[in-house]
Design a protein that fits this description.
single chain; 488 residues; alpha+beta; 4-stranded antiparallel beta sheet; 6 strands
Length: 488
């Protein structure tokens, strides 16, 4: 009698291929086989993993309705037209159902193999498989429905079993399955092992705890990234899919590698960890929690986060500048440099200009000047005009001081330090479509308020409510930005 180790089928150990879901499934098989690493799988542990999956699916045979078993409830999402949910199921006895599932989940004998290479790894395929076994192709347009005369995708035993194991690495919610993928194999192995353990517990309990709230998938992904103990070395992808005959979907959302690494620093560095709590507060809305909206922004529109911070710190200034403005400004600068790849020297220019603007506001009728500063951010044209007015005022004041000094000493000299130069203006108002000027304007807004707070300036409560009636979100309207912009 052939042992498991001698059986050719179980020697086809899962390998990593370019197919993302197959990769996830391969790491899930390693965890099901009790191995810490994929390379530690043997024929015996691979066989054990497949037997475990078969037993879990066979347990659906005794369930009458989808409410009675998790895998039966999600079988249409994962394995449509399979023995688990076939229309003839109701007419079969429980032993017959189990037998059909056992036959489905048993790889063919080597003598029955078609003699063609696996479409994914190139080893000998054990058969051709379609929609029942393979969740999805690379996109929604690859529906894996087998056309007449075509036998399906050629798969070896390792790749075939990997697709069956994807369910263990998935979060099952709302009729869809969600998996995390990354080309960083250590990260992928870690997050897959964590989810496999959770799924096994769910199968033991027999029910799924419904996730509540908005963007729960994105929140879970962010949590996995922040708890990983070394820098992520590749993008993190959130794959949300359904293999259902009624609605086959695939939605891929990406957290870029720079964003993932920056996110990890908010868990590792004490100052950033505190600021991250403020950032979640800044993203809060009446309908969506701060952590949920932050997760959504990082996955879909990361360039909007600086505007989110600026909106938060400039709202409700009638009483005072928020104490969290300083750590949020510092976190925003790191985000611009590390995630949005803004040149560090540009961000430093913005910080230096914000410091000078803070001095202007403090030295003049501060509350009134702050109002003008706030209002100017509603449109780029207004902000440019206000900045130019401050530059001219600074130049005239410096010239007058030098003239007075020269009259007393008998010498004359030019002002040495400019309030802002043409390079600053170009940075803030570059009209090119691919320009990041609007990001720098948002950061300038936040940095200026942070500089005011660092200097100990506070709003006069007697006139604040009338003077600082500013509730509109800073506009990204580029009306007038292209007019009369000085180039360096």
């Amino acid at each position: 009698m052939t042992t498991v180790a001698e059986d050719t089928r179980w020697q086809m150990l899962p390998q990593l291929t370019p197919h993302k879901l197959q990769r996830v499934g391969a790491f899930a098989l390693a965890e099901l086989g009790g191995c810490d690493r994929l390379g530690e799988l043997t024929a015996e542990t691979f066989h054990t993993a497949v037997q475990t999956m078969t037993s879990d699916v066979a347990a659906t045979a005794g369930a009458s309705t989808a409410k009675d078993h998790v895998l039966l409830a999600y079988s249409h999402c994962l394995w449509p037209n399979s023995p688990v949910n076939h229309p003839t199921r109701a007419k079969l006895t429980i032993p017959q159902r189990k037998q059909r599932i056992q036959t489905w989940r048993t790889p063919p004998e080597p003598a029955d193999w078609p003699g063609v290479p696996c479409a994914l790894c190139g080893r000998g395929a054990c058969g051709f498989y379609g929609k029942v076994d393979v969740p999805l192709g690379a996109s929604i347009s690859h529906r894996n429905t087998t056309t007449p005369g075509h036998e399906g995708m050629a798969l070896c035993v390792g790749c075939w079993a990997s697709f069956h194991a994807v369910v263990y690495a998935s979060v099952l919610e709302g009729g869809r399955a969600t998996v995390l993928h990354s080309w960083d194999e250590e990260f992928l192995a870690r997050v897959t092992a964590t989810q496999v353990a959770k799924t096994r517990r769910i199968l033991m309990l027999g029910s799924i705890t419904t996730l509540s709230g908005s963007y729960v998938r994105e929140q879970l992904a962010l949590h996995r990234v922040r708890e990983f103990n070394r820098p992520v070395a590749a993008d993190v992808e959130l794959l949300i899919f359904s293999n259902s005959n009624k609605e086959q979907t695939l939605d891929c959302r990406v957290l870029t590698e720079p964003a993932a690494r920056w996110l990890q620093t908010t868990a590792w560095h004490p100052q950033r960890r505190e600021a991250f709590g403020f950032l979640q507060r800044a993203c809060y809305t009446a309908k969506v929690s701060g952590s949920a909206l932050l997760a959504r922004l990082l996955f879909t529109t990361p360039q909007r986060l600086p505007a989110r911070i600026a909106t938060y710190v400039t709202t409700d200034l009638q009483e005072n500048i928020r104490e969290e403005t300083i750590p949020l400004a510092e976190l925003g600068r790191s985000y611009l440099v590390e995630v949005l790849m803004a040149p560090r020297e540009n961000v430093e220019r913005i910080t230096a200009l914000a410091e000078r603007l803070a001095q202007v506001i403090i030295n003049q009728d501060a509350t009134t000047e702050l109002k003008k500063f706030q209002v100017s951010f509603r449109k780029p044209r207004r902000l440019r005009e206000w900045l130019r007015a401050q530059r001219e005022r600074h130049y005239l004041a410096a010239t007058a001081a030098i003239t007075a000094d020269g009259a007393s000493t008998g010498s004359a000299r030019r002002p040495q330090e400019a309030f802002m130069d043409s390079a600053d203006l170009w940075l803030l108002f570059n009209p090119a479509p691919e320009s990041d000027s609007w990001l720098y304007r948002e950061q300038l807004h936040t940095d200026t308020l942070a500089a005011l707070l660092r200097h100990g300036w506070s709003i006069d409560p007697a006139t604040a409510r009338e003077a600082l009636d500013y509730s509109q979100t800073p506009s990204d309207d580029a009306d007038g930005v292209a007019d009369d912009v000085e180039q360096p």
